[in-house]
Amino acid sequence: MITLQLAIVFGTATLSYGSECVGKTPPAEMDLSSISFLQSYKVSGVISDWFNKNAVAFDEFANSDLISTLLSYRSGTSLQWVTIKADKNVFLYNRTIGYCDKANSSCLESFPELLRVSKNLSSMATLLEGLVDFSKTNKGFKRGHKIVAGMKGVHWVSCVKDTDGSDNLQVEVVFTDENPLKPPSSAFNNPLVVFLQVGVYGNFSGEISEQFSILFI
């Protein structure tokens, strides 16, 4: 089982700016079916958009009763989504103005590009669950190892070609499956997912049109 802490960085850090899918690539025979989230966890990080140049800090906490996701914006706005597991009700608390009501959007809905790898954007956990499902139908290959946030991990790449070749998808994941170095938090053990990156190309040998990177620390 792969469990994880995560920070999402859509733009301030990147694993590969160029295409890993151009030219001859290894056979795509590897999925991410061993990845999962703990039922109780706490994660934090930054969500940044490469092309729109937006950055959002997040903190997510989950236990047996609820999932809480806080997004903090550069403008000073702080929005907190709280999902009650028992009845599936979701509340949105605007911490900036002190107002709370039932939510009509999910916490990651403002990043629709993530729908390319997960159909459920209600939490970081569901994002990763969707990524696992994505990898089962869009298997990838091992592209050596990468050092991410001080952790050595396996570099996994999936190349998904659009039917007309105009919207090709490159998904990269780094996980510490072979890493003997222990995570800094005693609440987590290897293997951990430490990175996810999504890139969109008109063609894999051309320029990238979208890029979103997720750093798990």
Automatic annotation (TrEMBL):
The protein here is known as: NRF domain-containing protein
The protein's UniProt keywords, in alphabetical order, are: Signal
InterPro entries for the chain: LolA-like_dom_1st
- Which positions carry the signal peptide feature in this UniProt record? 1-18
Taxonomically, which superkingdom? Eukaryota
Give all residue intervals belonging to the LolA-like domain: 34-214
